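A note from the maintainers: we've had questions about how concatenated examples are separated. There is no special marker in the raw files; a new sequence line simply starts the next protein. For clarity in this README we add a label.
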Amino acid sequence: MDQPIFPAPPGYIVDLANPQRSGVAANFWVGSVGMVIAALFLCTRIYTKTVLARSFTSDDGALVVAWLFSIAIQAPILFQYARGTIGVHVWELSGSRLNSSFILINIASILYCPFLACAKFSLLFFYLKLSHLRWFKLCIYASMFLVIGYNFALMLPLIFACRPFMRAWDITITEGSCIDRTPIYMATAVLNIITDILLLVLPIPMIVKLQMPTKQKAGLICIFGVGAATCVTSGVRLALLFPMLKTIDQTWAIVMPGLWILIEANLVIITGSLPTMRLFFRHVAPHLIGESTLRSQSNKKGTDYANGSAQLSELKTIGSKKGTKSAYNRMEDDNISVGSDERTAAGWHTDRDSERGIVAPIEAGKIMKTETTVVRSDVVDVDKRERESWKVGF
């Protein structure tokens, strides 16, 4: 199969050695730069959750799996551009090169379903930590069932689209039949847009009820709002996909839909990592997010308290094996008594207490020693405000 299978339009001069190319530079730049940026965002999330929060949970695992799928989708696309099997007219491709192109296109289209499913599951697992209200959890579980249901239902027809199986990519096989995959591609895009909107709206009631400053609530909603960008990419991809599926010259027409697939595959990972970015910068560069002043004030008040409290030495033994001067700030997993109320010491907050209330569930600790301690209200207020913000990583 060294010759083209499809005839060229009248008057077109076929040049197999130097065919016309389209979209090569744009797709390489968008794909390679996007993968690097997405990997950096994912690494900051993993660092934040494993080093600062010391808790790698199901939402993190789901996003890592989604990232692996995104690489498996983008690699075949970029590989085909390097080989010159897409972004080329179908009549300037030999039969063997055309078959290899169709194989990789089929692989990428099949992997797209589990990729988006894992990305959505990562967000839904995160939502489970926002509230323990029964109705909210039922909505999340229903959303999970919807996501896994439609993705599984759409992936199976893509895998078994043809009889015999190899007819899906081998254009030399004329026996058998294939289903029309156009409705499947269209349904995938439409359902992804619908679930993107659903996942955008779902957490808003819980965020509004969080006990944190209005400015932080608005910022958190904006972070989730950035996820709406994936709705835009899905919509653009849907608009470009339909005309591509109606033409015989698909290796040429796939350039723009493929470009938006690369954008969406990386944007999903980037937006999925945004909720932990404030926490990351709070640790490495707090001045960039305007928290240096708050930290210095809080540390000053904590120092005053440490100098004025005779019972501080007793508290140092709780949650820390080393009795340093700042050990009272690192009480995490044990219960202490403040006044006459039993409190959880997880609220005493440092950089390594990342997202304690939501990322790493507080373990039931033993009461190592009970002390009645008078705590200055100004110190508690600062810690309380920070503790609430750490619950959502914002």
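[label: protein 2]
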Amino acid sequence: MSDDRIYVRFKGKTLGPLTDTKVRELIRRGQITRMHELSSDGLAWQRAEAFGDIFQKRNQDQPQAVATVPATTSSAPSRGTSTPQNATAQPSSTTSAPIPGQMPEDGVQWYAHVNGDNQGPINSQTLVQWISTGDVHRDTLVWRAGYDDWRPASVCMPERFAPTTAAVTEPDGNSVAQSVSSGGTTSSVPADVCEQFLRHRPWVLMLSIFTLVGSGFAVLYFVTAMVVGADAKWFPRGGSYSVIYGLSGLVNCGVFIAGAILLLNYATSLKTLNRQRNMVHLGLAIQKLYTFWRYSATVFIVFLVLFVGTAVLILVMAAAASNAVN
């Protein structure tokens, strides 16, 4: 392998030639991963992990570099019986996963497998922002320099998720995982539960949009009936009847428009649930759905009472008129 002619290829793009020192620097910063391909002539390509001893030397040198950290940061005195082998073995275990509650290093370059593609390199602040916006879930695979393989984001940054999961067995024998975070809020929702709710969204959107469009045309019709109905030949009756007819129609349109808006709110909560997928947003979506059904039930009961009351009134008036004739 030539020290001053190393080519790098990733997704069809070729960079180089680069020096051996530059390549190692890019590996340290996380800009070259094991998924890249390297070549000494630009023709024959190899996976980066199999190209020379670049990654092997890095994995061997990493524990010694970290081994000096406890000696400078630890406030407790070292025991006289400890050996150098024990001193170097301890840091190697701490590099496999970050300490819970510890902020990620600012200079670390991360890669994340998002939407079926590898995104990066990004810094720690960007990764934390993606976690907060829901673009990176607890099961999203991430990678940084020093990792042997991709790892779930919840393992690399447990303080950003911090759930404590307990398996609960239901009466039917099925085991259900219930997760509660340290702040007392529930954690992620099972994928099958999310999918069942997300299947509603296209139909909810279609129903709400059609209702809004139909109600809009109906509003135009009833307003026209109130304004020109008294003098128009196409309107069966004139005078005050056209005003009463138009007002009653507008009231009905308002009822349907309010229901459509509640459905749109439910569809919006489902969109948020698709991004966040946690129990908090699932609860919000269920609350929106409950509000819609409560409103629909109230409207149905009111219309039913009005209908029955009108029918009874007509029967009473008909009976009174019949008695008056007799």
